Amino acid sequence: xxxxxxxxxxxxxxxxxxEKFNLASYFEARDLAIQIVQESSKLIEVxxxxxxxxxxxxxxxxxxxxxxxxxPTKFRIGKNTLCSFRExxxxxxxxxxDDIFFFDxxxxxxxxxxxxxxxxxxxxxxxxxxxxxxxxHIFHDCNKAWKENGLNGKxxxxxAELSANAKGCVLNMNMKGHRLxxxxxxxxxxxxxxxxxxxxxxxxxxxxxxxxxxxxKYGAFFEDIIY
Length: 227
Prior knowledge:
Number of strands: 10
Radius of gyration: 17 Å
CATH class: Alpha Beta
């Protein structure tokens, strides 16, 4: 991940950023998003609802000076971890003694967008532990394949599906990735990573990986920029 430049420069209109874009501020927003998610995960307790988890992460974002959110915050528990971004959760679900959950946040900090999602488990369920680790492995496999082979968005998600299958999981293709930038990136591009026909430039695009176990009982999510 190169942090020694001031901006991102691409020949493609879909990857344009504004004159206000600053790479250092952009990376600062990313680092803050990771910190917020990981700190919030340590505050989740048995019996909490998704609204409780959302309140925790929203408070944490306020604590760190997040200006706004460019997308709604998500906190999913148990069977709701199967849900893609736009699907509604069962609001009766509570954190069990052995459970799995994930956060997905999109904070804006110093005028720059971040987007980070990670899965955690509570208790000693080995399948939950395996799945939360597997989803990260799939992400990093994809990141490596993109970097080494110059994959475009469609090929990147085709590779992700193969990687998930090889690891005994199912990839949810309703999560297709997107780009970031200084707020709002939608001024330049609203499309998904999966439909981007060129090799995506480093640091600008978010790869979203949502998987489930073969039986479709629970899921795991991880997202970050490809770098």
